[in-house]
């Protein structure tokens, strides 16, 4: 089988996990890594001697032996570097949030179309054996028409990130774009059969009086076409990492949970229960799930898309929708009013 060659830009906490995932994936090579500081470059050289390490990502983009470039950078750098990747004629795997505003998202969608390159966004949780089983049961009609989705996360505070970027509102955008963005993506995914998200009403608060913009507690209600609704709620003031999904439909309901010492543990606990309105059954989930596992599946998914034309799980269109929902939620937090979600006139694929 042809080997798909990856370049990686960003070798921080999550970039290292991407590098591991690329190394662990069959028929995929990690050809080059672009890091930043000398310390990060040295860490990359030590851990991945098989890859060539550069301190300027533009050198990586000049190579003609790279098929896919994986961008795992602080969020304010996503648009600029991703645009350079697409203009260099490479396929792109871009971490979430796709960009910090919708104009930048639209620019990347246009560049991907212009250069006929793949654009995938890192909503890897869609590949989870647990969360995708929920989707499968909905699609099979087990709960009838889905009407209500709850996605809840209670976790420990965010990491600072290199040079503190995650706690700097200009570089992170807002904290809804950090983790709740995955859950807005879930809400839209699970309710795909009923229609598009229309409006969001949200509220949030901070533990730090001198940093009201860094909001630890966040809750939102999203209304969809056809009357369905989703609740996305998160606190960063909890211990460990505990996530719940509940979906209720006209005939039945689902309850899934995932818990671990932290988000990227390799030893989580998880379950899925389903009711058809009469009885409750436990649905076995055989395959291990957690963001580090899904990362490996995401790399394999990209390679299969490049090699065999297989579909992407989350496209740039999905990435844009997620950013649009988060930005509307941030605006609602600010104004105290419901806000219409910008659909960009994109089809809900
Ligand atoms: N999908 C998911 O589940 C997750 C997604 N993410 C996303 O991944 C991205 C990265 O997060 P994370 O790894 O936690 O952040 P980190 O701060 O840990 O890492 C960012 C890295 O980017 C490097 N960097 C900065 N500028 C450049 C540049 N010009 N060229 C190359 N490298 C550069 C920094 O290098 P140096 O330190 O040397 O300056 C640092 O190592 C974010 O967008 C985040 O939202 C994160 C976690 C999970
Ligand atoms: O899923 C995630 C885990 O937490 C990180 C923050 O610490 C987020 O950036 C990320 O999206």
Automatic annotation (TrEMBL):
It is an enzyme of class 1 (oxidoreductase). Gene3D superfamilies: Dihydrodipicolinate Reductase, domain 2 (3.30.360.10), NAD(P)-binding Rossmann-like Domain (3.40.50.720). InterPro entries: Gfo/Idh/MocA-like_OxRdtase_N (IPR000683), Gfo/Idh/MocA_oxidoreduct (IPR051317), GFO_IDH_MocA-like_dom (IPR055170), NAD(P)-bd_dom_sf (IPR036291). Residues 132-254 form the GFO/IDH/MocA-like oxidoreductase domain. Its EC number is 1.1.1.292. Keywords: Oxidoreductase. Residues 5-123 form the Gfo/Idh/MocA-like oxidoreductase N-terminal domain. It comes from the Bacteria. The keyword Oxidoreductase applies. GO terms for molecular function: 1,5-anhydro-D-fructose reductase (1,5-anhydro-D-mannitol-forming) activity; nucleotide binding. PANTHER family: CONSERVED EXPRESSED OXIDOREDUCTASE (EUROFUNG), OXIDOREDUCTASE. This is 1,5-anhydro-D-fructose reductase. It comes from Roseimaritima multifibrata.
């Amino acid at each position: 089988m042809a080997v798909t060659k990856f370049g990686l830009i960003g070798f921080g906490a999550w970039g290292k996990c991407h590098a591991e995932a690329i190394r662990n994936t069959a028929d995929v090579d990690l050809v080059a890594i672009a890091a930043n500081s000398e310390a990060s470059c040295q860490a990359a050289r030590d851990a991945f001697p098989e890859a060539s390490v550069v301190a300027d990502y533009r050198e990586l983009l000049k190579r003609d032996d790279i098929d896919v470039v994986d961008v795992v950078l602080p969020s304010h750098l996503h648009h600029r570097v991703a645009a350079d990747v697409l203009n260099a004629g490479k396929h792109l795997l871009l971490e979430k949030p796709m960009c910090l505003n919708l104009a930048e998202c639209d620019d990347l969608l246009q560049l991907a179309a212009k250069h006929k390159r793949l654009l995938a966004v890192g909503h890897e949780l869609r590949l989870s054996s647990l969360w995708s089983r929920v989707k499968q049961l909905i699609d099979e009609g087990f709960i009838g028409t889905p009407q209500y989705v709850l996605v809840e996360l209670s976790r420990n505070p965010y990491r600072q990130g290199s040079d503190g970027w995650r706690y700097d509102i200009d570089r992170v955008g807002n904290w809804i774009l950090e983790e709740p963005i995955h859950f807005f993506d879930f809400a839209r995914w699970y309710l795909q059969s009923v229609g598009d998200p229309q409006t969001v009403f949200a509220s949030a608060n901070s533990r730090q009086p001198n940093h009201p913009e860094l909001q630890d507690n966040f809750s939102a209600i999203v209304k969809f076409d056809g009357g369905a609704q989703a609740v996305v709620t998160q606190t960063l003031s909890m211990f460990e990492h505990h996530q719940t999904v509940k979906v209720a439909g006209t005939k039945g309901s689902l309850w899934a949970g995932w818990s671990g010492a932290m988000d990227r543990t390799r030893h989580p606990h998880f379950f899925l229960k389903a009711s058809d309105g009469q009885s409750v059954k436990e649905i076995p989930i055989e395959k291990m799930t957690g963001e580090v596992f899904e990362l490996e599946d995401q790399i394999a998914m990209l390679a299969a898309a490049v090699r065999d034309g297989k579909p992407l799980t989350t496209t740039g269109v999905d990435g844009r929708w997620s950013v649009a929902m988060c930005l509307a939620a941030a605006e609602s937090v600010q104004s105290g009013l419901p806000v219409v979600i910008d659909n960009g006139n994109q089809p809900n694929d």
